[in-house]
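Technical annex B. To support the medicinal chemistry partners, we prepared a structural model of the target in complex with iron/sulfur cluster, based solely on the information shown next.
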Amino acid sequence: MKVGLFIPCYINQLYPQVGKATLELLEKLNVEVVYPSGQTCCGQPMANSGYESESIGACNHFVNNFKEFDYIVTPSGSCAYHVKKHYDIIPQTDDVTKVRNNVYELCDFILNVLKIKDLGASFPHKVGVHKSCHGLRGLRLGSCSERVTPEYSYIEELLKEVRGVELMPVKRGDECCGFGGTFAVTEEAISVKMGKDKIKDHLESGVEVITATDTSCLMHLEGLVTRNKQPLKILHIAEILNSNI
Amino acid sequence: MSHAKLASIFNKDEKKVDWHDKALWFVRHKRDKTVHHVKGWEDLRDLGHGIKAHMLSNLDTYLEDFEANAKKNGVEVHWAADAQEHNQIVHKILKDNNAKKVVKSKSMLTEECHLNPFLEADDIEVVDTDLGERIVQLAKEPPSHIVLPAIHKNKHEVDELFQEHLGTKPCDGDPQYLTGEARKHLRQKFIEADAAITGVNFAIAETGGFVVCTNEGNADMGVHLAPVHIACMGVEKIIPKQEHLGVFLRLLARSATGQPVTTYSSHFKKPREGKKMHIVIVDNGRSEQLSRPDFRASLHCIRCGACMNTCPIYRRSGGHSYDATIPGPIGSILSPGKDLTKHSTLPFASTLCGSCSDVCPVKIDIHAQLYKWRQIITKNTPQPFVKKKSMQIMGSIFAKPKKFEKVGKIARWSLRNLPKSVINSKPNTWGKTRDLPTGPKQSFDDWYNERQQNKKND
Ligand code: SF4
């Protein structure tokens, strides 16, 4: 099995530690993983802003980078979702279809392709999960409170196996954090209010660390937490699954 | 004004936002509790979706069937191409019947057509009889929610409004006293009315009958007392058969308020002896929306309001920030079809979280339609130069890895080295209330290449 690692643009530049944790974790699980150099972005920032046509270059570039692989794994639910859902704007060649079918969010890949639950990690902290929307309602990484379906959550299934983790329940377990890409800037007032409310929910339930499958949501929450000097740590799920404290 | 601007004004009073958010979340939560008790809820949604899709594909036939059957029942049927025509038809019926006083039961369609001011201009008194509607009518405001029209007002504001308009005593917002007074006031209006106008929730092609759902029984009160009943409906309210009604009645109330069924589901079929019944069937842009393949499913909507209650943005920005008859997620996909420029910011008033699509009882892919409207809006309406340019630049950076690397390096350096006051200066909206991450020295790319190099050297 040949796996290509996709590290989204903002993780690459601003949160390299998330990329490192992802790579190390996959290697620990004996996956033959390659990081094709010269990768950039899935095209989502332009497309979600209504400029799909400006993202065509990025889409083609993405497919070229990853067409050789059996699986493409990324520590970002929203990027995986974007490739799956919105790559209709480029001609649907075999390569494009293959890439779209085989791109996976990290937890989804570990649980459903590798079929591993216990990763041998330990992390003795009170953890609150933020269920990022594109992963949740886009990729169905967990059940959503709106739908009448059996309850499940890939991210929590993996976290439950991590030694020492205490999963803290929050009141609005799957409400959006208010990031939403350019929404965070164009609708600043609402975005910030949503983020503040999200953090309050976690603080009230005694959470020490907020985690998620998407660094973008976490960047927004972290921005608020640091500005307001709140007693919370923000870590990507890969960092927790890869830790051994 | 843009949605963002209006929403930020609403957000100045954080306590009010919290209260608005909680009130609507309470309704959403109640909805969850009831739907999770219905076995096969998801199948019911599929069924509702399927019936609506089938209806829209055969809309002409079903409308004709409905007209023929309604006429057989002794109902007069009228057709209106747009709001103007709708208002004129209603006005003419009222004139023909010498009607000066009208009681109306909540109808978003008459709101959409701006019927009240049209009639009032000719000295016809129109009283909205749904309590929430009456409250906003007294406040001279449009409804801010399609099911809970006065949800943006708290009981103290209602107290003051009633003192001013109905002469009530100050009561510290006592809901029981206030509803009691409203009831007395409305009862008088029902008794005096010359005509009753209602909306239509479901019109059944097979029988020519229709159903109006209310929780206060005000539609019945109006219709039973007044000599003339005028029912106004959009073309998409048709369902093929009587047997389909059960599907929608079960979906509607649970999704709207978490009730198993609306308190009054009133069935109307023919005028009573000596009374008259009219139906006005209105297009007003609906066939145009039907002609847009990507957006036609927006016409499935049964106006339950669940997408508003679930929308984290709606809950925190208030219905009026949408500046449209139908606010919230569904309004944001209906309104651009009517006036792309006026409503150009609505499809962007979303994080595309998808909660609206998952809650929608008739499975409208609302968030996917928001995404599609965005693509159309940027092409067809004037966009800020900075946004357009930055998207082009971003597009070219992401298509070229060398450029990406360079820009990334500069960005990281700036985040590390520039003073906070420069980083968070005015052009950086992000930094107003949020910190940016501290730029790491090495990108992942750099780290990985170094690691590969080291591996080789080992
Ligand atoms: S779009 Fe769906 S959820 Fe929203 S009001 Fe219409 S039927 Fe209800």
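Notes passed to the chemistry partners:
Chain B touches chain A through 72 residues (CB under 8 Å).
The radius of gyration of chain B is 26 Å.
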